[in-house]
Amino acid sequence: MKKLFIILFVFACNVQEPVRQIGQLTHSTPEREGVSSDAILNFIETAEKEQPDALHSLMILRHGKVIAEGWWTPYNPETPHWLYSLSKSFASTAIGLAIDEGVLSLNDQVISFFPDKLPEEPSENLKNMRIRDLLTMNTGHQQDGSRAFRSASKDWVKSFLALDVEHKPGTKFTYNSGATYMLSAILQKKTGQTLVEYLKPRLFEPLDIKTPTWQSDPLGINVGGWGLSLTTSDIAKFGQLYLQKGNWNGRQIIPEAWIDLATSLQTSNGSNPESDWDQGYGYQFWRCRYNNYRGDGAFGQYCIIMPEKHAVIAITAGSGNMQGILDLVWDHLLPAMKDDPLPDNEDTYHKLQSKLKSLKLAVVEGNETGEMAEEVSGTTYLLNENDQQLKSIRFDLSGREKSYTIQNSEGAFTIPVGYQAMLTGTMRVPFQGELATAASGAWTEDKTYQVKVYNYETPHAITYNFTFNEDEIIIGSEFNVFFGNKEQPEIRGKRE
User: Fold this and answer.
1) 88-204: CATH topology
2) Whole-model pTM above 0.85?
3) Is residue 425 classed exposed, middle or buried when 0-12, 13-18 and 19+ CB atoms within 10 A define those classes?
């Protein structure tokens, strides 16, 4: 689709060609939009079999209409989800808008915005780094230095500019979240607004995205490369806007020329024909196989745009196999998208709807009570120093409504725990703030009570095994997905 406005032809077969969105997202059946309900059902069932409890939400759009949507409980339509690096595509959009407004240009030197934060003798490579190099991940760095500069000081811009730039900018692709952070810092320097503030009237409000939040650095700059939280439908609308070449509700929200640049191949990043991470990179968008493109974030946060199929797929997940999710899309959904409407199939359609309405993640299996439930209830255990910064834990496992109360550096928080169901609550986590919880628990052994907690605003869940041995408690824990080892170091404690 190369023009801003597409003529809608209505054929006798009632096929809809892609048109600009003229309102908020509308719904249709898969068959009316040329997709088999059976193919979508097979995609979901195969995903659940191959990656149990990995998918959190799914929304499929065809011809601008929602043909399938579902959330695995406790995930839900209303709660925003961490996007991780899918945030980068939104940051890129802000830069494109700023360039269109004449605030920035692709060839602006990065050092020109921060003369007071430069090293004493800036290298030639640093001097030659430009906005286009930040956008394409061709900054010249040998490796992503974002963790290094975040820990160096509260002034992340100064720390980024102090990193060695080993290669000439524009000559080496290195995926680098720090590059996107610098785009955010540059935009804020030039406009006086954070990414969220800048995008609110230009993108979020036109798309009716109501609750965007973006994490900030210690100096109040949105981190850019990660940290944005949106709902699944927000992701889908963003993808549909890009599919429509920036036109929404009859208004050109994003310049078509920018979308063409941002989503086309700007730099090569590999040669493996089977990998969706080797198909090239645009301006904070990944190229995909089959001539598609996407924004993506760690553990399976996807906004997949399929121009030739006039389709958008939004996914949130907690997966350690991101390529596996894309493979399922290409294997099940891509070939199912036909040019013409399909005959209605009420039986399969109703099976799909029933499946979509009953999606849920696993709860802990075991016994509701155990021989030690009464003994440990009401007891506080003081914990040894640990990486999770837990100070103490207290249990209430004897009654019908079960819970445990943790004390960490942020305070004390009681987590309700359901049996064969999840109960919701909130807690505060160091460096992350308040997070919603949904927890289930059961006695899996005589002396071990297991709890699984979904932080359902995030991709993360953690399973705790609380083992009681006389006056001692031993806590084993493991994340579903994590940067580093999922299994956490054992924590021990004693009765208070």
Assistant:
1) Beta-lactamase (3.40.710)
2) yes
3) middle
